[in-house]
Amino acid sequence: MGAELRLDAHPVTTWLLLGAAPDSTRAVGELLNRGVTHVLDCRTPRPMPPPAAICPSLVWCSASTKDDGASRGTDWYSACVAFAERAAREDNARLYVHCTAGANRSPAAAYAILRSRGWAASTARDRILTRRTQARPRYFEDAEQCLAELGLTDQERP
Q: What strand order describes the sheet that includes 95-99?
């Protein structure tokens, strides 16, 4: 049996990290060592709970969606933002947002989270793409449209 997978994560802000699935106990341990308290899993549903879902030290949320190029929809973005807001209300919370590779779905969720917290679109986009070079803006436009429908982009701060 090979070595356990390491965590593939990048900080976007002091409270938000973005990356690939923490699919080993070693990766979950690295999350805990980085002070992560909440995990938003943006992959399609798994037949067995992933390690982060069964770790008693983490609050885990599944916001499952396919990486198929279609709109994620307002319900998905709303669920991602709501979980992030829940985490942000807790003292010393750190949120880890991931999908399988940390390239499409989780960057879109992170973008929606930043935009809902008042980040300008260009600032959120640039921060994600520079902090996680594997990220692609595949769903950023979709996120922007859905967040506008939800009324979550009107409070933009510089």
A: 9-11, 16-20, 95-99, 38-41, 59-62
